[in-house]
Amino acid sequence: MNDSLTLLGNSQTKWPSSPQEAKLEIFPNKSPQSHYWVHLDFPEFSSLCPVTGQPDTARIQIRYTPAATCIETKSLKFYLTSFRNTASFNEEIVNRILSDLVAACSPQECIVRGDFSARGGISLTAQASYPSPNQAALTKES
Q: Hey, which residues does 110 pair with through a beta bridge?
């Protein structure tokens, strides 16, 4: 077993209280020569509205192409659950998740999409990608 994986195989039930406390764990990609997508779906995401303090719910979908490492899914579940008491706008959440995933596993590509439940009759979907279209254009020009 990978020594860096502390949650997988552990019956730990204490949830992290914030994304800062949570740790995204990784493991070596056994097929780094292949270009493939990993799809992760978390349909029961929750956070708090930073203005009203009321709960927001969403379906978070993550799609990434691993480079040298992959995200371990139990640690991802703990990380995403840690947002339940976090007051943040929906757009900030999607971008925060993307930034944290990129920092943890340096994927070739990554897309994070949040489909947030309707509030006041309006549903919100936010999607962020890495590299951003601007980064990709700059890389091609170099």
A: 64, 130
Catalytic residue set: 49, 56
Question: What fold does the segment set 26-141 form as a domain?
Answer: GTP Cyclohydrolase I, domain 2 (3.30.1130)
41, with CB counted inside 10 A (0-12, 13-18, 19+), is exposed
Are the CB atoms for 40 and 77 separated by under 8 Å? no
Q: Are the CB atoms for 65 and 37 separated by under 8 Å?
A: yes
The model's pTM is 0.87
pLDDT tens column, 11-48: 666 788 999 999 999 999 999 999 999 999 999 999 99
Nearest in space to 97 (alpha carbons), one of 72, 51, 70, 130 = 130
